[in-house]
UniProtKB/TrEMBL annotation:
Signal peptide: none annotated. Residues 9-151, 177-317, 338-487 form the CheW-like domain. It comes from Kushneria pakistanensis. PANTHER family: CHEMOTAXIS PROTEIN CHEW, CHEMOTAXIS SENSOR HISTIDINE KINASE-RELATED. InterPro entries: CheW (IPR039315), CheW-like_dom_sf (IPR036061), CheW-lke_dom (IPR002545). Coiled coil: none annotated. This is CheW-like domain-containing protein.
């Protein structure tokens, strides 16, 4: 090849897929890596969308070129570890699964053979071809590729800017966040570290205290277990404040000892950064103070953060709480054991319920995620969370209740090999039902006919409790929904309901 031809030629990376070969301009190809054995599948995605994996803190969606070009009609995960060509495109990146990388070819314009378009309505995926030795190589048009439905491009986020000190510092602060339950007691906001919170329950009758101990308000009963009830303001050293008059209690565990805190209002679970906790001057020199400092949340205002370690040093409180022997789990002869059933109530342009056991986590809707081109069908994209890929599904779309209000919360379901996050309007509260362990019955399992949408197959009508305490709930089994969205033929099973109840015909 002459010097003039070399200067006017374009460089292409030649990739092998089956018995065919395709080419991409080298300026869009970033690197080639091995295809991981485990990919996070993309629910409701076409067969050529294999899923996503993490590469150096980046989320890489993978497209199977062989299936895309209809050279392979198989479905499901790939059994052998092939290669992935990482491609840069429109300020983002994605991966192409290929069988082999043959090298670089320099092709001049006169050696490029244009190909006729199969249809006049859409540009061809391979508009031209050239020969590289004895290989016929088809040039892949990236723009036409991304005109296809189901394509997904990972945009740059804070993970992609590791070399920028300011961005890296922000990412480190995000990783270093902790969670606390924000409560209100007589107009004073306290934050309880999430690790010490067990549950939130209505505070029923409180028996008068048998001894005068600061902060001790008396005792109450929860599932046949007697709990000591305390004024959290007094335990926090705020003795000058009147005790709360609320009808709620937060059950906490201190050195494995349960006790109840009387509160007026449970506001919400919030995230905070320990570096932002401001020490209080009056308690800074007191090693026994149970308040470690103040949190100033931009939306929720100021709150006093309880120090769980110092709280556990209060010997009087723990000794008093331990005086009441737990009776939970001990039943008399002939007495039916009770169980606590927990359900999460949430809004998705309508009110819905799902078993708490089916959720691994509830988080705020992330600002950064990899969007999908099929958002109108429910699959919004993929996000990185706790070093894992999570597929984002807009539950409101699946329920045929779409609207323009952005989702605020995500219910995460962990299926082991993959994770699905269901976008909702708001997670409202957790309802605990104390009932005989064998009282849970399924009255209806949703429509199970062939071709029924997954959202209809995951609906359940359940009955919990007996007599006057019997309650009927319409439940969405999100574990089953997550599985069906990935594989419609997966066996139906969901925690708590299918494993603990006998089904009755509708």
């Amino acid at each position: 090849m002459s010097r003039a031809q070399t200067m006017s030629s374009d460089a292409f990376g030649v990739l092998g897929i089956g018995q065919s070969n395709v080419a991409l301009p080298t300026d869009v190809m970033r690197e080639v890596v091995s295809l991981p054995h485990a990919l996070t599948p993309a629910p409701m995605a076409p067969p050529f969308a294999l899923g996503a994996f993490r590469l150096r803190d980046e989320l890489i969606p993978v497209i199977d070129l062989a299936r895309l070009l209809q050279l392979d009609d198989s479905q499901g995960a790939r059994e052998r570890a092939d290669q992935v060509a990482i491609v840069r495109w429109q300020e983002g990146h994605f991966g192409l699964r290929v069988d082999a990388v043959h090298g670089i070819a320099h092709v001049s314009a006169e050696h490029m053979q244009p190909l006729d378009s199969a249809t006049s309505e859409a540009p061809p995926l391979t508009p031209a071809a050239f020969t590289d030795g004895d290989r016929l190589v088809y040039v892949l048009d990236i723009a036409a590729l991304f005109a296809l439905p189901g394509m997904m491009l990972a945009r740059a986020s804070h993970h992609d800017n590791g070399d920028q000190p300011g961005t890296r510092q922000a990412a480190d602060r995000k990783i270093n966040t902790e969670r606390a339950l924000l409560i209100d007691c007589g107009g004073v906001q306290l934050s309880l570290p999430a690790a010490m919170v067990r549950e939130i329950q209505p505070l029923q009758t409180v028996s008068a205290p048998v001894m005068d101990v600061p902060g001790f308000m008396g005792t109450t009963t929860l599932r046949r277990q007697t709990l000591a009830v305390f004024d959290p303001l007094a335990l926090a050293g705020l003795d000058d404040r009147p005790p709360p008059k609320g009808r709620l209690m937060v059950v906490v565990a201190v050195r494995e000892q349960p006790l109840a805190l009387c509160v007026d209002q449970v506001i919400r679970m919030m995230a905070y950064n320990p570096d932002d906790v401001m020490p209080l001057i009056e308690s800074h020199d007191n090693p026994e103070a149970t308040i470690s400092g103040m949190i100033n949340h931009p939306q929720l205002g100021e709150s006093l953060l309880v120090d769980a370690t110092r709280f556990a040093r209060d010997a009087d409180t723990l000794t008093l709480a331990a005086m009441y022997i737990a009776r939970e789990g001990h039943t008399a002869r002939g007495e039916v054991p009770y169980r606590r059933f927990a359900f999460v109530h949430f809004d998705a342009f309508g009110q819905f319920v799902t078993p708490l056991e089916q959720l691994s986590e509830v988080i705020a809707m992330p600002e950064d995620f990899t969007p999908s081109s099929r958002a109108d069908e429910g699959w919004t994209g993929t996000m990185a969370h706790r070093d894992q890929a999570v597929s984002l599904i807009d539950l409101r779309q699946l329920l045929n209740t779409p609207h323009d209000t952005p989702a605020t919360d995500v219910l995460i379901v962990d299926r082991g090999e993959y994770r699905v996050g269901f976008m909702i309007d708001n997670a409202r509260h957790i309802e605990y039902l104390d009932a005989p362990a064998d009282s849970l019955i399924i009255r209806w399992r949703g429509e199970q006919e062939t071709g029924t949408p997954p959202i209809e197959q995951c609906k359940r009508l359940v009955v919990v409790g007996t007599g006057a305490t019997k309650k009927v709930l319409s439940v969405l089994c999100l574990e089953t929904l997550a599985a069906l969205l990935v594989d419609i033929n997966v066996p139906h099973h969901c925690s708590m309901i299918d494993s603990a109840a006998s089904a009755l015909p509708a």
